[in-house]
C-alpha cells in the first residue's frame, strides 16, 4: 500500500491490518511521549515560553540602571521646579508695573493738581495683598519726588500718597 503524500514512511497502516505493535520512525527520538496537558517543555520554552524565566535565562538588570533612571527623573523634576520658582510661578499675583506707574501719574494730576508729572518709576513684582506699601519716584515740575503707595484690596486698588 502506498503512503499518503508528505508523511514519513511507516506511520500509516490501512484499517484492519495488524502489523504488530507500533514502531517509531527511525528519525524520531526515543523517550517518553509528550504530555499534551500544557506541560510541554523544550529548549525553546514550549507552552511555558511566556512564563517566568529560569535564573540562567533571566536578563541581568542591575541596580545601577534603576538608580540612573531614578536620578535622571529626580534631576528633571527638580530643575523644572527651580525654573518655575525663578519665573515666578509660586509668588502669586503681582501689580502690573506699567499700569501702576500710569495710575500714579494720573492720580497725581487729577487728585493732587500736579500738572507737570513725568517719569514715574515703581518697583516691579509688588504683591497684590491688602496693606502692602512701597515707594515710587516721580518727577514733578522737573524735581524728583517720592510717593508712597498702599495696596487697598485684591482687585487691586491702591492709594497714592502726596509727593514728598
TrEMBL record:
Start and end residues of each DUF4333 domain: 81-154
Keyword Repeat: no
Keywords: Membrane, Transmembrane, Transmembrane helix
Compositionally biased tracts (Pro residues): 1-12, 21-32
Pfam families: DUF4333
Record's keyword annotation contains Transmembrane helix: yes
Region called Disordered, residue ranges: 1-63
Recorded superkingdom: Bacteria
Membrane-spanning intervals of the chain: 67-90
Protein name in the entry: DUF4333 domain-containing protein
